[in-house]
Each structure stands twice: as structure tokens, then as C-alpha cells.
Amino acid sequence: MRGENLALGTAGLAAFLALGEAVPRLGLVEEAYFPPTSRIADALGDELGDRAFWSALGDTLTGWALGLAIAVGAGIVAGVVISVVPHLREATASTIEFLRPIPSVALIPLAVLLYGTELRSVLLLVVYASFWQVLIQVLYGVQDVDPVAEETARSYGLGTWARIRHLLWPTALPYVMTGVRLAAAVALILAITAELVIGAPGLGARIAVAQTSQAVPEMYALIVVAGLLGLLINVGARTVERRALAWHQSVRGEVAV
Predict the structure, then answer these.
(1) Which residues contact 238 (CB under 8 A, 6 or more apart)?
(2) The model's pTM
(3) Within 10 Å of residue 214's Cβ, how many Cβ atoms?
(4) For 220-255, how does the pLDDT look when each residue is reduced to its tens digit (9 = 90+)?
(5) Of 141, 130, 127, which is closest to residue 79 (Cα–Cα)?
(6) How far is residue 49's CA from residue 33's CA, in Å, rounded to a whole number?
(7) How far apart are CA 159 and CA 163, in angstroms?
(8) Alpha-carbon Rg of the chain, whole angstroms?
(9) Could you tell me which residue, 155 or 236, shows the higher pLDDT?
């Protein structure tokens, strides 16, 4: 089954690349705006041989990794504290619902005002966007704790930390991993967006330079790199999720199938 899916996916990708090669050469779109796949591939090869490209890639990954780590840590701690402390969830519910829908890109003027084009501007946007993905999942996970199991833990005299470790955390972990996977994708989007708009060093800034200098094949090549980076991050996050939840019924059922 997996071999068949892989073959279909490869065939679909090959058809897409062939379409990208044929459409501009047939004159359906102007090559100046959408170059053929072969020209984009050549530009990608040139980028891979450029040290500046690898430096930009490192800057993007640095902003992504640091921002994601801060957001995950803060989201887990805040979610657990809000859920465990009595009445704190009710007290913070309206504040969370007010702040969560604010688009991170709306904070770009604030980030520029505070930090200019430094890495901290990227981190501000990445952390803000990713934090909510983790926090909401933690809150849902803690809410899913079995009331009977919770009362049993209390009746056996388990303290707060013991309940968190043996009851709350195993129940919330599948939700936490979902939040981390979503946050990883959001963090990459915001990192590249911040670089593109603010001009912070990274792939986004390199894309902006290619666009303003009319280097269209190079621009598309960098966009392809961003897409491949997102794919690798998603696959890596799913792999970590499966290993962390190897004991969980959902993953065991998936492996069995």
C-alpha cells in the first residue's frame, strides 16, 4: 500500500514538473513571469553552489528553531499552569480568545520598531504565532483527562506533581505533539514572512532581493527550497510524533494498518 502511494505521488510530481516545463514553452504564460522547470532547476543548482545561500538557510533555520523551542516550552508550561491552578482557566479564557486571533503579521510594525531587522524581530513573530498552537492543544489535552482516573489519583493521595506526571501528561501528550507539529509549520511560515517583509537575514530576504532584481528563476528556486524545507519539517515532526506516541492507540493502530 505504501509502495503504491509512493508511486502515485512520484507520478503526480513528475506530471506537475512536466506541466511547469510545457506551459511557458507553449506560450500560455510569459517566461519572464513563469520560467520553465528546467530554468528553475538550473537556478537551484547555482543557489546550492553559493555560500551566501547556505548562510541564508542557516539564518532561517536558526530563527525557526529558536522561536519554536521558546513557543513550545512557554505553551506547555502556561497550559499546564492554567489548567492546574483553580479558576485560572476561567480567568484567562477571555484574554486568550482576544489575543489568539490577532494575526502575527499585524505585529510586524511593532517588531521593526523594537528590534529593526535583527533576529529578535523574527523571534517575536514566530513565538507569538506558534505559542497559541501549543497552548490551545495543551488546554484541550488536560481537559480530556478522565474524571474517574483523576478522582482515583486523588483518593490514593497523589500530589500535584505526581498527578501531572502520571495522569495529566500522558493524557495531554497526543494533543501536545499535535500542537508541536502545527507550531513547527507555522514557525517556518512566519520566519520566512518576517525575513521577506522586514528584511531580516534569511531565505525570505533572499527571495525579496531576487524579486526586486528581476532574477525570476532564482526567485522560484528559492521558493522551491522553502517548500522542500516545509516538507522536511512536516515529515520530521510526524516521525517524532510517532516515536513519542508509540505506546498510544492511535499510533499502534496506524502501524498495524
Answers:
(1) 181
(2) 0.86
(3) 9
(4) 999 999 999 999 999 999 998 888 887 766 665 554
(5) 141
(6) 24
(7) 6
(8) 23
(9) 236
* Residue carrying the nine cell digits 532581493: 209
Which of 18-22, 55-59, 152-156 ranks highest by mean pLDDT?
Answer: 55-59
pLDDT digits 0-9 by tens, 81-129: 998 888 888 899 899 999 888 888 889 999 988 888 888 999 999 999 9
The mean of the pLDDT values for the chain is 87
Q: Quickly list DSSP for 128-193.
A: HHHHHHHHHHHHHHHHTS-HHHHHHHHHTT--HHHHIIIIIHHHHHHHHHHHHHHHHHHHHHHHHH
Residues 84 and 108 sit within 8 Å (Cβ to Cβ): no
Q: Longest Cα pair distance anywhere in the chain, in angstroms?
A: 76
Residue 210 near residue 153, CB atoms below 8 Å = no
Task: Answer whether 36's CB lies under 8 Å from 25's CB.
Answer: yes
Give the three cell numbers for residue 15: 506530471
Q: How many CB atoms lie within 10 A of CB 27?
A: 8
Q: Where are the alpha helices (DSSP H) in the chain?
A: 2-25, 37-48, 51-84, 88-99, 108-115, 119-143, 147-155, 160-163, 169-198, 203-212, 216-244, 249-256
Reduce the DSSP state of residue 62 to 3 states and report it: helix
The grid coordinates listed for 61 are 533555520
| Distance, CA of 64 to CA of 69 (rounded, Å) | 9
